[in-house]
Amino acid sequence: MSNKDFTTGLVPNEVYKVEAFGNSFKLIDASGTKVGTMGITTGTRKKAYQNGEAVQAYINKNGKKTYRRVDMNVYNSLVIPMNTQEGGVQFEDKGDHTAIKDFIHKGSVSLKPTELVMEELKWKYLIRSAVRAKNIMMTGPSGCGKTMASKALVTALDRPDFYFNLGATQDPRATLIGNTHFDKQKGTFFSESAFVTAIKTPNAVILLDELSRAHPDAWNILMTVLDQGQRYLRLDEAEGSPIVNVAEGVTFIATANIGNEYTSTRVMDRAILDRFVTIEMDVLDDVKELGLLKFMFPEVGEDDLKAIAEISHHTRTQSMSENGKLTSMVSTRASVEMAGLIYDGFELEEAAEISIYPFFSQDGGVDSERTYVKQLVQKYQKDENGEPLFKEVDDTESNEDEIPQF
Ligand SMILES: Nc1ncnc2c1ncn2[C@@H]1O[C@H](COP(=O)(O)OP(=O)(O)OP(=O)(O)O)[C@@H](O)[C@H]1O
Ligand SMILES: [Mg+2]
Description:
The relative contact order is 0.08. The two termini are 31 Å apart. Strand 6 (81-83) and strand 7 (89-91) form a beta hairpin. The protein is built from 14 helices and 16 strands. Helix 2 packs across helix 3 (97-107), helix 4 (120-131) packs across helix 5 and helix 11 runs antiparallel to helix 12 (332-343). The strands form five sheets. Strands 3-2-1-4-5 form a five-stranded antiparallel beta sheet. It has a five-stranded parallel beta sheet with strand order 9-12-15-8-16. It has a two-stranded antiparallel ribbon with strand order 6-7. The protein is α/β, with parallel strands linked by helices. Residues 146-147, 209, 255 line the site of magnesium ion (MG).
C-alpha cells in the first residue's frame, strides 16, 4: 500500500484552536482550556484565527518543536465525545448539541482513512452510532471492508479498544467468560477472560469480529450483555450466580457476513440481530474499485487495474442477479490481492489463477463457473506487443458459442 503520510512530524494530540479576546489571540486546547501562547508567534495565531484554522505542534527535522496551521477538523476531531450510560452524550467541555453535531458532520470526516472506500453518509452514521453508544453491526459479503471499517472507527474514536474474533473461537465460554482452574494450594479458582476486562472498562469500544460465524453458545452468552436494558454478563448459567455489569459508555461493533454464499455463516438469531443497528457495507462498483486500486498501486499500469476492476465488477453483477451465471464474486480483498501480485511482477492471468479462480467451481467442465471466469480474464490478456490476445468477438463470425459475450 502506498503509505503517503503527509503528516509526518505532526504531533497528533497537540492541537489548539485560536480565539480572539480583544486584540489578543488565545490558544484553546482540546479539552477547552485556555493555555499560554506556547511560544507561537502572534502572526501565526492571528492568521490561524482569521482563516478559521487550528494550530498543531510539529517536530521538524532537527527535533525542534514548531507549530503549523492546520484544518479546523483536526481540532474538532480531538474533542472526543463521551457516551453516558443512558446512551446520551456529553462533550467533555461543551455541553451543547452543536458540539456533537459538529463532530459527526465535520470533525469525523477527516478521520475516515483515505484508503477506506465507504460512502460519507455511512461513515457519519457509523460515528454517530458509536457516539450514541449504540451496538453496531457491519454487514456485507466477505472481503468488502467490514473489519477494515470497524477498525477505522476504533482508531477514529481514540478510546480504549478490544478485539475479539468470534469466528475463530472454539470455546465461547472460555473466550467470553473465563476458565476455572484447579491449584493444590488455592483449590478451584476462576480466571476471568479478556472480554470481562473489556466490558468493565468505561468507554471501551469492543470489536466482535465475525459474530455471524460464532458458536450459538456465544450468542446466548452475549444476549444480556448487548441488551440496552440489561447490559450485564452472567458468569455462570445458574440463577443467582455472579454478574459483571457493562461499564458506562461501552460500545460494541460486530461484523457479520449476512446474505452471502458462505456456509460457515450460521443464520443469525433474530433476537441477537435486534440488539444492533446495522450498517451495510457497499459492494464497490467498477469505478470505485478502480479508484481504490489506483490509490493503492499508483505504480501499476492503469490497463491492468482497469481489467481487475471490470472483472470483479462483472462477477459481482452476475452473482447478485437472479439469473446470473455465477454464484460467487471477486471480493475487494481478492482484487486488491490481484493488483498486489501484478505490482510484484506477475501477469494478469497468473494473478487471476492464484487469487480468484479458486473461488469458482470447476463442476461442469467447459460450462463451469471457473471456465466462465477464465474466459472473462482472457478478454483482458495482452500479447508481447501489448495487443489484446483475444480480439473482440466479431458479430459476423459464428463463434459466439465459444466465447461468452460480456
Ligand atoms: N470498502 C473497502 N475499501 C477499501 N479497501 C477494502 C474495502 N473492502 C475491502 N478492502 C480490502 O480488502 C481487505 C479485506 O477487507 P476486510 O477484512 O475489511 O473484509 P471483511 O468484510 O471483514 O471480510 P470477511 O467477511 O471475510 O471478514 C482490506 O484489507 C482492504 O485491502
Ligand atoms: Mg472481517
